[in-house]
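REQUEST FORM: STRUCTURE PREDICTION
Request ID: SP-0412
Submitted by: Lab K.M.
Chain count: 1
Length (residues): 165
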Amino acid sequence: MSSSALNYPLLSIPAYYVFSLIPHVYASGLLSANGYKPNNANPKASLSPSAVQGKVPDAVFQKYQRAENAHSNNMEQLPLYVAAILASIIAERSTARGQGNTAMGQDVMGLTSFVASWFAVRTVYNVAYVQISDHTTSFFRSTMWAVGSGLAGYQIYKAAQILGQ
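STATUS: Completed
RESULT:
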C-alpha cells in the first residue's frame, strides 16, 4: 500500500491519543524534577493528589494538577473527536459513491482543515491549562475548549447534512 492510499484523518485518531498523553508525561516529569518518585507497583495511588500534596512545593503541585486535568480533558474529548472523524469519513464515502457530485479523493468534508484546526486548538488549550494559574485568565482556556468542541460539533453536523440527503 502506498502512502497516498492512507487515510490520514483516520490515522489522526491514534495520533490524538498519543497527543493526549503529553500533559500526563509533563506532569510526571514535574514531579520527578522535584524529587518525587511514584511507586510503579501502584502508580495511580502514588500519583493521586493526596499522595503528592506536601511532598513537592505548592506551585509545582498546582501545575502538576493542572497538567493531569489537561490530560483527563483530552481523554474526555477523544470520543467527540473520533465521532467527528468517523462521521466525516462515512459522509465523504457516501458522497463519493454517487449521492453528490464530488469525485473520490476530494476533501468534501474539510477533514484536513478540521484535523489541523483541532490539533492547533487543543495544543493552545493544553498549554493554557498547564500555564494559566489565575481565575480571570483561565477563561481563555475555557474559550479554547468551546472552540474545539464547536469544531467537532460542526464537523458532525456537516456529516449529518450529507448523510440525511
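NOTES: Residues 13 and 79 are 10 Å apart (CA to CA).
Reviewed by: T.R.
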